[in-house]
Amino acid sequence: MSHVIHVPGTPRAVRTPGVIATPQVPDLPAARPAPPAVRFSAVHRRFGAVHAIDGVDLEISRGATVALLGRNGAGKSTAIALLLGLDRPDAGEVRLFGGAPQDAVRGGLVGAMLQGGTPIPRVTVREWVGFVAATYPRPMSVAEALALAGIGELAGRRVDRLSGGQAQRLRFALAVAGNPALIVLDEPTAALDVEARRGFWRSMRGYAARGNTVLFSTHYLEEADENADRILVLDRGRTVADGSGEEIRRAVGGTLVSFDLDGRGSAGLRTLPGVTALEVRDDRAVLRSGDPDATVLALAAAGRIRRLAVTPASLEEAFLNLTAHPDADADQSPSPAVTR
Amino acid sequence: MTARALPPAAPAPAAPVSAATSAVVGPPFPRPASWVRPLLSYVRLEVRRTLRDGGYAVMGVVMPVAMYLLFTNLGVGGDADFRGDYAQYSMIGMAAYGALGAALAVGSGVAEDRGRGWLRQLRVTPLHPVQVVAGRALTAGVTVLPAITAVLTAGGLVNGVRLELWQWLAAGLLLWLGTLPFTLLGLGNGYALTGQATGVVSAACMMGLSVIGGLWIPAAAFPHWLREISRWTPTARFGDLGWSVLEHHGPGLGTVSVLAGWLLVFAGYAVLAYRRGARTV
């Protein structure tokens, strides 16, 4: 089993990557809960020999802010195209609010900020946002959308005369102008400087705080960690981890226990309690451990403690651990955390 | 906090049976309150964009008027009667030429928008694809008007063309309606080709069809074989919509059926191109 299924209704603290089966409430029509904002069921999408989406199951509950994290080519944009109804899966099913993506889009429930668009010439910010808002059944006012995006003072400006950062904010205003329940942002901060990025995330959180669902893709770890309450790590078209940044860090990265070998070799270290990986640098062993207490106790019992250091793994390391794996076992679970 | 009733929450009180069914076919998402309002809002946006385009003003209005005035005032021999007839004939021809250019320009706009990702962005708004295409066609319905009125006005005010009121109105109206096949041709080009290719193909269509259709030089001056071809072009029949009015009658059955035939051909082309182009949007 290589991907993680988020069990709907599971409390956040309990939902860790790798948890697969918990008893589910029977799906009785009488007690039918509102369908989730997003649901992928065994979705596959191939482009020739490339399996862009390779059996993804996921569910995003209403009101959540979720980051889709992955390297370039991990399948993020394909997942978003499928989600928005711009593309269709070869197998499996995508549902938004319990309906087909296209119907949800036509119903005005979805706003999106796509990658790679450039502003159209000869319209003002106000006209453009006003038009997009007018296509939705219950839009917000143009002034409100611009204020939310932090470009209220640019209303009269021609959209083809904006700076890169301003244009990006404008595209955010377009995504929220219709007051949709779900916004989807495909790499929204690509090509923004630090300051613009900070402002952008402020806007995003403002929209999420209204009870809306937000899904954004990024390949910046810190952005996912800081701005999402849940991170879905996508790698080669599969979800390889699912949880908060803290959960992923803990479960995948573990803790690093390092000490000097003092010339005694590394035999037996790999099988100590809690140890999931072993690396020897110079004459120093670095153990990755899921249970550092047990590992340290075992080391002490063996009399191996020399200049011991116990440090938490960074999310960066967790991410690398999740997405870097030899081709040979592509079908195997990419990380110990997922199988455990 | 914005109060909003999500669609699946709304049908909750309904009978369990309908709830179960809706889970299969998808919940009844809110239908747009109006089909026409977003469409008009799109047309307004695109018309604004077109009117603000300097290239449009030159190609769609200034050029046809300038060519009309040049063709009818420079190097035209013959007596006053002939010159008057020619001023009338050319007025219709150049109005048609200007309208043709404005109609085909819609395609260049579509191709550009495709390159900018604007058509893709439109697909993630509640607008239906039919509304998007119809909006573009209606945009052309507006942007061809300045060309037609400008040339007819130049004819009346500068070249002293005298027609009865109904003739002015009928000529303008028929030319306006007659642009529809060319709008569809332009849309087809816009969806089938890249931005640059659309410009080239549209310019070729405009020049070729204008000349062979006799919009610049009367087909009567053509050699026989070219005249035979000319009769079957959409532009000759387009011009004939106006020329027939000069002769105090409506367009003949031949003209209407040839135009209708081209309308079908170009509509088919536009639909095929859209289906193909939409995938790469």
UniProtKB/TrEMBL annotation, chain A:
SUPFAM superfamilies given in the database record: P-loop containing nucleoside triphosphate hydrolases
Stored Gene3D superfamilies: P-loop containing nucleotide triphosphate hydrolases (3.40.50.300)
One Pfam family in the UniProt entry: ABC_tran
Protein topology in the membrane: Peripheral membrane protein
GO biological process: response to antibiotic
PROSITE patterns on file: ABC_TRANSPORTER_1 (PS00211), ABC_TRANSPORTER_2 (PS50893)
One term under GO cellular component: plasma membrane
Subcellular localization(s) per the UniProt record: Cell membrane
Broad class of where this protein is predominantly found: membrane
Keywords, alphabetical: Antibiotic resistance, ATP-binding, Nucleotide-binding, Transport
Protein name as catalogued: ABC-2 type transport system ATP-binding protein
Organism: Actinacidiphila yanglinensis
Automatic annotation (TrEMBL), chain B:
GO molecular function: ABC-type transporter activity
Residues covered by the ABC-2 type transporter transmembrane domain: 44-236
Membrane topology: Multi-pass membrane protein
GO CC annotation terms, alphabetical: ATP-binding cassette (ABC) transporter complex
Main location: membrane
GO BP terms in the entry: response to antibiotic
Presence of the UniProt keyword Transmembrane helix in the record: yes
Keywords: Antibiotic resistance, Membrane, Transmembrane, Transmembrane helix
Locations listed in the record: Membrane
Superkingdom field: Bacteria
TM regions (residue ranges): 54-71, 91-111, 132-153, 165-187, 199-222, 253-274
PANTHER family found in the cross-reference section: TRANSPORT PERMEASE YVFS-RELATED
Name by which UniProt lists this protein: ABC-2 type transport system permease protein
